[in-house]
Amino acid sequence: MGAQHARDTTVLVDMDEVIAYYLEGLDRALVAADPDYPLVPHEERTGYAHLGGPGFNPESLAAGMNTPGLFRNLRPVEGAVEVLREMAGEGLNVLVVTTPTYGNPTCVQDKYEWMDRHVGPEWVNRTIIAYDKTVVSGAVLIDDKPSITGSMEPSWKHLLFTRPYNRYVESVPRIEKWEDWKQTVLPLIEPSYA
Ligand SMILES: Cc1cn([C@H]2C[C@H](O)[C@@H](COP(=O)(O)O)O2)c(=O)[nH]c1=O
Ligand SMILES: [Mg+2]
User: Is 16 an active-site residue?
Assistant: First the structure.
């Protein structure tokens, strides 16, 4: 079979903190696991891995992160589901690419169920759960993590989805909010597409 597109129109979209509010769900799970857990207000997080306040117990953090059902109950980010559908409707090949939490026994199933419930059943097989996002081919990856590394030189250009803990990053182009997708995503696919 020949190539279906004359150029790569694949847009890869991260899940946690990009289309689903992971940190809200994690906070609930942390307090359930340890009522004294020192939560970090989201606006005060200084980095991606800043998940506990002074004196936090790493075992409580692990218990929260590994809570069954955590990933099933996340709230969708405003506008995200609509934009996924809109991008697909414009002929882009949209795939959701997300890293699992290995110790969470329901994480993988929860992520597929979340996509089915919030975006639609046809999006389940558009969901790639992978530790190494560099092996997934695409034109653009929209992701909140400041630095994404793996075993390959990525084919995609990273578009940083703005969250409080990545505001200090200046080296990566960013998308501030979903409604900006046309101005930010399309020029990275091909300038003439915009
Ligand atoms: C936002 C965030 C996520 N994680 C954990 C939770 C998930 O298992 C993965 C998701 O990673 P991805 O880069 O969004 O695919 O990582 C975390 O540990 N800390 C965070 O701030
Ligand atoms: Mg993320």
Answer: yes
User: Rounded to two decimals, what is the model's pTM?
Assistant: 0.94
Separation CA 128–CA 119 (nearest Å): 14
* Dist CA 124 CA 44 (whole Å): 34
In the set 8, 16, 110, 116, the catalytic residue is: 16
CB 12 within 8 A of CB 130: no
In 3D space, the residue among 191, 138, 149, 190 whose CA is nearest the CA of residue 172 turns out to be 149
Question: Which tens digit of pLDDT belongs to each residue from 8-47?
Answer: 899 999 999 999 999 999 999 999 999 999 999 999 998 8
Distances (CA, A) of 16 to 23, 81, 107: 8, 13, 12
Residue ranges per structural domain of the chain:
7-21+74-193, 23-71
* Overall average pLDDT of the 95-100 stretch: 98
What is the position in ligand 1's atom list of the atom closest to the CA of 23? 1
| Contact between 18 and 25 (Cβ < 8 Å) | no
Q: Which atom of ligand 1 lies at the shortest distance from residue 15's CA?
A: 14
Which top CATH class is 7-21+74-193? alpha beta
Of these residues, 14, 27, 110, 143, which one is catalytic?
14
